[in-house]
Amino acid sequence: MKKLYFIFIILFLTQKISAQENFYPGYIITTENDTILGKIEFKDEESNANICNFKKSDSKEIISYKPGEIKGYRFLKTEKYYISYEIKTEKRSRHVFFEYLIQGPVQLYYYRHEWQDYFFIENPEGEITVVMKKPDEKVRDPKTLRIIQKEDNQYKIVLMQTFYNCPLITEDITKMTTLNRSSMIDIVKNYIACINTSEDKVQYIEFGTKDNKLQFKIEFSLYTGIRYQSFNFEEKRKKHLSESMYSIYPQVGTEIGLSMPRVLKPVSIQLGMAYSKMGGADECNSLYEKSFTYYKKYTFNSDLLIGNLGIRYTYPNGKIRPTAEFGGAYTYLFNYSSKIYKEENIENKIIIESSHDLKPSDNTYFCIYGSLGVNFKVRQKSFVFLRFDYDNLFQKTNDLSSMQVKLGYIF
Fold it and tell me: Over the stretch 236-264, which tens digit does the pLDDT of each residue have?
């Protein structure tokens, strides 16, 4: 079992995020200003700023463009627009993809790097002002000597200096409670409205504000299969019946998968519920002396309700997609019945005892499980899957484990 978990961990750690797919209609703009339609991978903000994974609509080949290799790219559905821009510093310069937020007399760009948001304001002369907010700091108040939260408001001063020729906007900047995409768009739009003093109103274009949130994807699946169960309860061992019992029963279940394709498409959280049964018998014969023998038999039957929560890796490409999963599961026993039958022979006198409803000490058990399987693509977003699961009880007093074969359908 440890080897199985080790394989899962290696699969997660070695998979490159760049291999994930989440393509939407869009186009790229080449360095010769040609527009090529196709599909572009839609990922998180930081990834979008560093790479453009593109493929033509009728092709499976993925071409990766770095900033500088193309002029920009744009998604048609969300209207998010990225342009290649060269950032120059005293030490070095490099190209990145800026997200284009507003095009007008004042340009507004957005860039995210190492979990920090940066906004770039470009005036009509081509001069760039960088606006950012540093993380809050914990400092000691010199008067009370208490630790307080110090908020960085330097960005407000930068904005007031940038838009100095519009005093009316100073109040809007002062009221800003946070620095984000929405607040910056509002400030720049208000500034453009402020400088519209002539009859010919200055126009602007606002890009990509339709979808700025991380999208969640939900998948539903139904399955049936076979459950092979091995179990041995503490109560049975106290009766000197130590052998495990085995049973094979059908199983049905459903699962809900939750993932964030823009961040980590191959990985999903799985929440499932299944129903099955288990039952079995164990018996023994003992001979103490010629005049004293006894026979014991233990039988047990129960319905099972199994709830699981796990993490699944699914290979993101192709019609055949291997899967690996691990997590925890709670097994709930109900409608159970058990019986101990004892028959003693003492000097040819037979004594029969029978005890019913010998309940286990607990009817809920926590198991660790692992799973390997494969998804077969049958439609655009539908799959038939085959999986092999193994789980083992995380307890010392009782022994409960199972192997399962599942065949199901993902909607």
Answer: 555 555 567 888 999 999 999 998 876 77
Asked if 314 contacts 326 with a C-beta cutoff of 8 angstroms, the reply is no
Six-digit token string for 345: 């022979």
The Cα 275–Cα 223 span in angstroms is 11
DSSP H or E segment with residue 6:
helix 2-14
Indicate left, alpha or beta for 266 from its phi (over 0: left) and psi (-120 to 50: alpha).
alpha
Q: Which two tokens stand for residue 391?
A: 């789980």
Q: What are phi and psi of 169, to 5 degrees?
A: -80, -10
Strand pairing category for 116-122 and 107-113: antiparallel
- For residue 19, the 8-state DSSP code is G
pLDDT at 212 over 60: no
Q: For the chain, first and last CA: distance in Å?
A: 31
Please check whether residue 207 is in contact with residue 101, taking contact to mean a CB–CB distance below 8 angstroms: yes
List all residues 6 or more positions away from 283 whose beta carbon is below 8 Å from its beta carbon: 241, 295, 296, 297, 298
For the chain, the maximum distance between any two Cα atoms, rounded to a whole number of angstroms, is 119
Can you tell me the distance from the alpha carbon of 335 to that of 348, in angstroms, rounded to the nearest whole number? 38
Structural tokens at position 76: 């048609």
- Pull the structure tokens for residue 68: 């500088």
pLDDT score, position 200: 60
Q: Is 31 helix (H, G, I), strand (E, B) or coil?
A: coil
Sort strands 245-259 and 52-55 into parallel, antiparallel or unpaired: unpaired
**Mean pLDDT of all residues belonging to the chain:** 82
Residue 369 φ/ψ, nearest 5 degrees: -130, 155
Q: Is the pLDDT score of 201 beyond 80?
A: no
Strands 107-113 and 93-103: antiparallel
C-alpha 387/C-alpha 326 separation (Å) is 12
* Distance (Å, whole) CA 50 – CA 60: 22
The better pLDDT of the pair 37, 281 is held by: 37
Q: Specify the length of the chain in residues.
A: 411
Cα–Cα–Cα angle for 245, 249, 255, nearest 5°? 120
Given a contact cutoff of 8 angstroms between Cβ atoms, the answer to whether 328 and 357 are in contact is no
pLDDT at 4: 42
